[in-house]
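Form 12-C: Joint structure prediction
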Amino acid sequence: MSGKKYDYLLETLNAAQRQAVASSAGPILVLSGAGSGKTRVLTYRIAYLIERGGIRADNILAVTFTNKAAQEMQERLSRLVPYGASRFNYHDGLWVGTFHSICARILRLHADRLGFSRQFSIYDSEDQLGLIRQIVAELNVPTDKLSPGAIHHRISRAKNGLQTASQFAEASGDFRDEIIARVYALYQQRLRENNAMDFDDLLIYPLELFRQHTEILANYTQRFRHILVDEFQDTNRTQYLFLRALAARDRNVFAVGDDDQSIYRWRGAEVRNILDFEQDFPDCKVFRLEQNYRSTRNILEAAHSVIVKNHQRLPKKLWTEREAGEPVALLEAENEFHEAQIILDKITEEISHHNGGTSSRSFRDFAILYRTNAQSRVIEDTLRRAGIPYVIVGGLRFYERKEVKDVLAYMRLAANPADAVSLRRIINYPLRGIGETTIKKLEEFARVNNLTLLKALGGVGEIPTIKAGSRDKVLAFYNFIDRYASLKNQLSLLEWANALVDATGIVRLLKSENALERVENINEVLRSIHEYAGQFRDATIEGYLERVSLITDIDRWDEKSNAVTLMTLHSAKGLEFPIIFISGLEEGLFPLIRTGDVDSDLEEERRLFYVGTTRAKEKLFLSYAATRSRFTGNAKGLTYNNNLPSRFLAELDQRFVQRESVRRPRAFETHEAEGGKYFGHEQAMPDYENESQENEIQIGKMVKHPQFGLGEILAVDGKGENLKLTIAFEKVGTKKILVQYGNLQIL
Ligand code: ATP
Ligand code: MG
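Section 2 - Result
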């Protein structure tokens, strides 16, 4: 052991942090506010256990909130602990990951014990909803009374609360619940038949595995002598039980969290876990860190002055050695376009101002946070027009794009032949003349003979009602999948994937449709397989598909690229930036509360505000717009809401805040002149607030778009917020424009 290195480890910590890091074994809870070094302490604790405690890396399990955080922790550790990089290889040594990835890994190893094969698919929310829709249709559920989405939500809730379908049925109250119970039971059965699990299953099945096979649990409790969890306040019940099961033997759990940053209660996270922890582990040591290293004093005080308004919280206050810094700036805008413009102005101002002086600022120093994804659109447009590089975390996830999912469905089916959801997705895409009636017959045949859907395809010859023409098409598809299922073991992963993608014909189809961006996305899938295969010696398609299923928005965010980051407040958890903007601070938007919400919902919003403000290291800007347009989704089209400033702004201790005077920026006026939609307070609301806009939208009408100029409407599709126009623009050719976002002026 390098003693010097070890000293260095503890030297960079304050006394309280050091105590937590160097504490003797046993249950430990580190409870403290934002930026006090919890994540740092957790990372150093691992390094300390290895360096000082002589604990082997593979005896340690660390749980992070995102895959990205896991990767960062691994990188950090390989720098902290000398000649140990290989020990932090996820595969051989230390296990670091999210609950979902750790559980998936355990399940892969023991799936057979639960009646699944190792190749099980992981269904994302779209797959899950698709399956529920199918079941709902099968059971003739009246969807006007119960939407598939609502059913899905209730099922997931029940699963999260560890309520099985039969328990749910027993507890069910009204006729709706009875229907949900039937869908739930069939849903679980179908998942099993498809050799598939949803996200909730990933957390639940390990508990079942441990309960049924105590020898397997014993194996893990022996292996994981030390368990560490970050963001403990956002664990849900199932995750807590999982931890408790694994820690049953040695009881070395090191949990760090902040009750003020619990922002996932709506998803079932329970702060109760913090209380239970102290009960389940009565000898647990509790550490509190009180020094904040992230933010200036003004930011810290401002954040504190709001969070103390919550009743449900453990009292605590952070202090900092840092300078007061500039006051928190409050920016008042006239509407959302103006707000975006002000933010843009601030960014340019900061950059030019700072870069003249001693320190310099780059785009990556800025993050713009918002409550709902929809708010990003206007900000994005404004930055794009100004030529400012930006990245958006969220929106439609890469792996949720249609063409990406299509290609992955082929891979999934070849890897897991039982996966009927994937099969259904691609059996007739690209078109190969297999119709819905034929598919229904195949499904029926599969059910009667207790076969997987793919096997039923292979046995299509035995279904007399399917005619010879269709039969050959079905057989051709079956042989195609079968061939790639066996080629999987003969080719390298990348060769196989390349060949499969090529053979599907999807790329050729998309090229013929001139959908080049989609082709690019498919290439990106192949690139990511290449990358994955290079990373792991034992790369398999199942492993790749699992990673893809568990990837989240934030994991794909590359903070090294020099761009402004746009993301929701939820995504920003755990991160820090020199300069933070929080936009849309308006009653009804942030806090985002609906009628019928209770105090606890407001408190959760306030915690989210606390999370947002405490991301800032040097400067914090808070903005709101006096009016904001909202698309109602019905014939009314756009309406403009007058907003009250968020109550959080009033709650801020004004000593740390400075209101900036509002001026109407130049660019703002320019857009107004060209688009007609950018308007200030004093001006009349545009005419299309009512039905007249929808009436005006007709084929043949001329329109003006702020970016693309003049054009003629060729086609009108969809309704409400999906109202889409195909427009032939004079300069840029034909484009499809969503009216909601298009800023169109009808001439
Ligand atoms: P959050 O609650 O937002 O997750 P946290 O409590 O996990 O925050 P960290 O992210 O670990 O806090 O630390 C916040 C910042 O302070 C980081 O940049 C970290 O490197 C720095 N920091 C923490 N402790 C120290 C220390 N003792 N000396 C110097 N810098 C520190
Ligand atoms: Mg942290």
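Section 3 - Comments
Confidence is low (pLDDT under 50) at residues 632-636, 665-695. The chain has five domains: 3-110+203-291, 121-194, 301-397+558-678, 400-546, 691-746.
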